[in-house]
Amino acid sequence: MPHLKGVKILLVDDEPNILSFLELGLQNEGFEVKTATDGITAVTLAKQFKPHIVILDVMMPGMDGFEVCRILKKTENMAVIMLTAKEEVEDRVKGLTIGADDYMIKPFSFEELLARIHARIRNHFPHLWGEVTIGPFRIDDRRKEISYHDRILELSPTEYEMLKFFVLNHGLVLSKAKILDHVWGYDFGGEDNIVEVYIRSLRQKLNDREHRLIRTLRGVGYRMDLG
């Protein structure tokens, strides 16, 4: 995962152990981190700190995460990742409906949280990326170039967007629908097998004959593994 300087993250959770664990981990990744243990403090701190990302627990005393999210999304330009121990679909739908950008169920891995943070930065604040190195890949978004093991790949614009999407979300399962939405847009009217065509081309250019880099998960989607 790349280290991104200047990215500010606000952690909001009423469990001290979770807060301290995430705070230390994210600081080690190069992020500037502030914490809050309740909703009212979170809203006040967000207006002062101006974070890029808010990692927000749903179940808190007083003002819950849903209300905090609703307030922040009305007034601030920030991405919100909601955390909850609940698995009810209704809670996830409610969070996304009021403006949350992503949703994670506790317990979760720190690596997955990092991947989701990077995805949100990529989507909301692309100017913060510039040139980044992730594993054997180097992405230069200004030149629209991707290098693999220091070799610049010859990519079409569509291949560039797809490979960048995979690299920035490595370790996460990406469905055909997600890939289509991100690379071709929501109004794409073609066949979804176009994804398979481009993945086949990317595998050839990456010399990924055994599909160890871009893995196919039958009936689910694809996942990039960097080792």
UniProtKB/TrEMBL annotation:
Residues 8-121 form the Response regulatory domain. InterPro entries: CheY-like_superfamily, OmpR/PhoB-type_DNA-bd, Sig_transdc_resp-reg_receiver, WalR-like, WH-like_DNA-bd_sf. Pfam families: Response_reg, Trans_reg_C. The modification 4-aspartylphosphate is found at residue 57. Residues 129-226 bind DNA. Residues 129-226 form the OmpR/PhoB-type domain. Keywords: DNA-binding, Phosphoprotein, Transcription, Transcription regulation, Two-component regulatory system. SUPFAM superfamilies: CheY-like. It comes from the Bacteria. This is Response regulator transcription factor. It comes from Polycladomyces zharkentensis.
